[in-house]
Design a protein that fits this description.
Strand order of the largest sheet: 2-1-5-6
Low-confidence stretches: none
Radius of gyration: 19 Å
Shape: elongated
Strand content: over 45%
Mean pLDDT: 94
Number of strands: 10
Order of helices and strands: EEEEEEEEEE
């Protein structure tokens, strides 16, 4: 069984036991997080596609820790102007582990 949900402008595919990196929010590790904007649920009984969301479906996940993404290096350069700039960015995420997918009865 898997589900596709949206959170923070991104869409994720969730399966029970899978670890995901979602946008950071102020939440303590060990607490449960519920995603209720489920767009698709596929399982043994078939596939439910929402228009745009599946009513009554939700995904429960446990917050594991805060994590950082890869370092991105941005270089800015203008030739013959002696103008250079180097900056970097590292996005912060929270790591969650999917515990349960609840699908509505069809």
């Amino acid at each position: 069984m898997y589900a596709i949900f949206k959170d923070g402008g991104h869409q994720y595919r969730a399966e029970v036991g899978k670890e995901l990196y979602v946008d950071v929010r102020e939440i303590e590790p060990g607490t449960e997080l519920v995603f209720d904007q489920v767009m698709l649920v596929s399982g043994e009984k078939g596939t439910l596609i929402g228009q745009p969301l599946v009513a009554g479906a939700q995904i429960t996940a446990e917050v594991m820790c805060k994590a950082k993404g890869p370092k991105l290096v941005i270089r800015w350069f203008r030739r013959r102007k002696n103008s250079r700039k180097k900056t970097g960015h590292r996005q912060t995420y929270i790591k969650v582990k999917v515990k349960k997918i609840v699908a509505p009865q069809a």
